[in-house]
Model the fold of this input.
Amino acid sequence: MSAVWQMIISGVTSGSIYALVGLGLGIIYNVSKVINLAQGEFLTWGALLLISLTGWGLPLGAAIALAVIMTAGIGIIFERLAIRPAWKSSTTVLLIATLAVSIVFKGIAMIGWGKDPLSAPSFSGEEPVRVGQTVIATQVFWVVGVLILIAALSWYFFNRTLAGKAILAVSENRDAAALVGIDVRLSVLTAFALSAAVGALAGAVIAPITFVTYDSGTMIGLKGFIALTLGGMGSIWGGIIGGVLLGLVEALGAGLISAQYKDLIAFVLLIIVLYAKPAGILSVSGKRV
Amino acid sequence: MDERIRKSISRGAWWGYLAVVILVLIPYLGVSKHFINLLTLTAILGIAVLGMDLLMGFTGLLSLGQAGFMAIGAYTSGILAVRYELPPLYGILVAQALTVVISLMIGKAVLRLKGYHLAIATLAFSVIMEQLLINSRELTGGPSGLAGVPFFSVGGLSVPTGLPLYYLTIGLVLIIILLFRNLTSVRVGRAWLAISGDETAAAMLGVNTSNYKLLAFVFAACLAALSGSLYVHYMRFISPDMVGMQASINITVMTALGGQGTLWGPLLGVGLLTFLPDFVSFTQQFQLIINGLVLFVTIVFFPKGISGLFTYVYQWIIQRIFRLQRYPEGGPIDNGASHSVHK
Amino acid sequence: MEQAILSINEVSKRFGGLPAVDKVSLRVRKGQIKALVGPNGAGKTTLFNLITGTYPANEGRIEFAGKDITGHQPHMVNSYGLARTFQILRLFDKLTALDNVKIGCHRWTQTGPLGGFFLTPKVRREEDLVREKALECLEMVGLTKVAGQLAGNLPLGQRKLLEVARALASQPRLLLLDEPAAGLNDSETNEFLGRIRKIRDTGVTVLLIEHNMNLVMRLSDEVAVLNYGKKIADGRPEDIQNNPEVISAYLGTRGLERAEH
Done:
């Protein structure tokens, strides 16, 4: 039984990360209809910046804050330099444009941090917590805690603040939002900055439990895309639900069937959900789209 | 000037003949063997990309999974040649048959999806293929791949990588371009273009959209598989990552980069991505950055790709020099439409 | 009595519980021009979408030329000889006007991929025929001059006509036109009127949605009026004009009251 608990814990951990990537993708997608294939790079940069900043002796809190702020800045530059020129392009063009940006990001990360895998020390010591026979690394609490914190903050932001409501309005209907005086471009810019910040924070909290290289972002970005598709692209929350589900299914599948089939299971799950509910598990059936 | 000549100049048909002549003569212009091999590779990958062009450029379906079908071609050909010592043509035939069956099944399942959903579903197919290949060690050799694939051969006559394979693949590409140029200019091609333009309108004009989408999907899959079969004999080795997720993404990128909707454009995209690493290999460090920037600038500032840029420059020139009427951009141009305009 | 080419029996469609079309019955007789009028949101376009199979009806039965076509898919419906235009135009903007119309010829042509690869004589003959027919349809709406231009570059009036030509190319027996004259100026509207009559004279039955009452009165043999998803009147134009319920629906005595509350 404790083996299954172990799998669930590992599933929730990776699921939380997928959820954070999915949330970031969902925010950008809903505002701009762009699937940002460079979303995984925000994670890589958050992790790599944290590793360097703590390496230079900065206290942990300051390092995290700085890594997140710097990555949000990168998100803003990304939107200004890359998305705005391509704003009126087709789906394919936008998709490939973000892919191109992700390649550039990888290239810069490779020059800055080299090709070797890097890792950060655990935030709260290396001694794990034991619950019965189940062993939980302290970093797991950080990861899940960050997801809960971000989810709560996002809920507050999108439901209680003017800027958040403006972004939601833009995602509902861009033209109508513009008509009532909402600055659509500012909303898109904000979405990119937020999304980059969320990605960087996710990267920072996983830096201690995984090895990060300049090209780690590709697969994790794709997993986030799957998470968003599973949950439903039309909702900002789809990515969170889909991410946790994906993490759990992967971990249980890897544990109960075979670790070799971990990626296979993720993509098979995606195909099944797309076949049964193309608009994601959060979608209401029978709704006109 | 004779009307027909005017038209063919204006439409740039002469470029096609010129390109063929250059491609035939190029091995005798003192280029290196390496260069010829890269051209061969361009032609081989070009076949998969042509298929992608039918799917994306003509029918408007965004796929990120074409390497999954390339994998079927490459591994069927590779396994039959290495494990059963069958001649390559058998490998191609079996691979094509297998691809038709699999692509019909996959197509039926995923083609009711649109846009990003279709893109990620096809990507999932490609990843699943890659994972299956990695995990079926006895048959495929697993992650370390399948080595010892013989040269391509036709009827016992070996076609080694180098000049012979170069001419064979170039010939094949030209034939495929001709066939699909014909097909896309008549009823089937018009139905595809209609679906790409507006699916609802197409259906209301009697086009059975699901069948025509499936047809494009199967053609694209078969071309990808053919490309895979040739690829394995060219490389004489195959491993899952060579026809994995990254390869899938590359096929889509090359198609968009070259310019969708023209059959020759995407080949330029393949050429660019095949030769570019060679040109920028002087700087290992900046290679990724340069690749990304080239891709970004091309796709964002020339949405019709390199071919769009070419067409624009070409038409600008002939307009100035020959004072010919400029044809409308994009889309196939009807043979006789200019008649009524000239009158 | 003349034969009904289209007969709709008690058809309903609800969106999220709200009835958009409510037990509507309608007959269109062969060779006539029938107009479907009513205030915005009366369910006219929804009725068109039900006829053409864009979405299924919740209840009721639709017959075309004696055949039950309820719930058939759009491409099937077209294959029986029914074509339509769209209120919000759905042209293939990146193709030339002529190619747009050629796609309309899909229904009665049949060559497949194999012939297409090799441009067999059969395919070439078919292509010649398609071209001839397409030019004929362009001619019928007076667009021969712009055959080689991209549909996306044409002005609104010509785009509307192009949609008609494209629908005609499928050689329909019944043509559904969704607000074909909206946005046209007076002289264009007059020209349009003549063209629709000419099309009818070639044997095509026409059912059109139109807001321009002047045009409807001059053009149609019969008029049906929808209001809030229900049919409130059906008959000859002069009878409809004097129908009190129609007048109140149009002048909005009831509508105004509702709006005020």
